[in-house]
Amino acid sequence: MARVDLTVMGGGIFGLSCAWEAARRGARVRLIERDRIGAGSSGGLVGALAPHVPENWNDKKQFQLESLLMAPDWWAEVAATGGTDPGYLQSGRLQPIPDDRALQNARARIAESETLWQGRAEWRVIPATGADWEPHSPTGYLIHDTLTARLHPRRAAAALTAALRAKGAEITFGAEDPQGPTLWATGYPGLLALNDALGQNIGAGVKGQALLLQHDARDLPQLFADQLHIVPHADGTTAIGSTSENDWQDPTAPDAQLDDILARARAALPILTKAKILDRWAGIRPRARSRAPMLGAWPGRPGHYIANGGFKIGFGMAPKVATTMADLILNGQDTIPPGFRVEASLQARGR
């Protein structure tokens, strides 16, 4: 490739998505990944694209909403271009309602969702039916939102890789120097590098663990019970996750905490009791101090940009992150919310 309009450093969900959005707009794109596609937290198992509660609205919730609303068409184009299915489905989600106060709050959010979600999705309170694919609810009622979606993280990364290659993007592996405008989407290692470069702690990593079961519920809603995401995938598997650990010895080694996750999932959903364990995963998810995705220009480094900090919501935020960064880098159009800027994590120091 003689000339590059954009170099993307990192083959995780933010790097792949931003590279794809630039390539689909006609830019010459080169993506450089040191190890392998999805080597960090983007190589996980869960893939729950779940919205924030429709209340106390802010820029972060609005940004995520816009991303979730654009996701069906965005992922459909990825799949059509590369011929690889990311396993995306706007499947909805069921949650048990534990007590009368929570039931009152859940019902109050019905009207809020009608306004905040722009009539594009619904937040409902429905009677539990006792079906096998329902968590037990002490009140006899469930929250059913129709905005939640899912995809398989590894299949999504493969779909983006195939779509990039179909658009003529170059994907290379190893330690290479970038050329031209460069977007750094390097996850947890990138946050550590930013800490060193900027002379303060603006981000850190949180370990997560998840597992995959052989249980086919591919057309059913995902569940959120006992703080666990239970996500049926298109390939007939079901993912369970995840932990959030600030202290760890081995960042990529699953441990006994997965046994606790499995026990809690089976208690919430007995139909999973005999499901075979297919895979166990552990990795470090990047979290900015602002607790929002960190987007924008790299302070003091002209021509370099950052997309990082997708902690827990990276796949759900990816379409909007990609279009926002493509607007900034390719068109000079800056629509990044103030709380998402790198400076927001600098200002978050000491919180």
From TrEMBL:
<dbReference type="InterPro" id="IPR006076">
    <property type="entry name" value="FAD-dep_OxRdtase"/>
</dbReference>
<feature type="domain" description="FAD dependent oxidoreductase">
    <location>
        <begin position="5"/>
        <end position="328"/>
    </location>
</feature>
<keyword id="KW-0560">Oxidoreductase</keyword>
<dbReference type="Pfam" id="PF01266">
    <property type="entry name" value="DAO"/>
</dbReference>
<protein>
    <submittedName>
        <fullName>FAD-dependent oxidoreductase</fullName>
    </submittedName>
</protein>
<dbReference type="InterPro" id="IPR036188">
    <property type="entry name" value="FAD/NAD-bd_sf"/>
</dbReference>
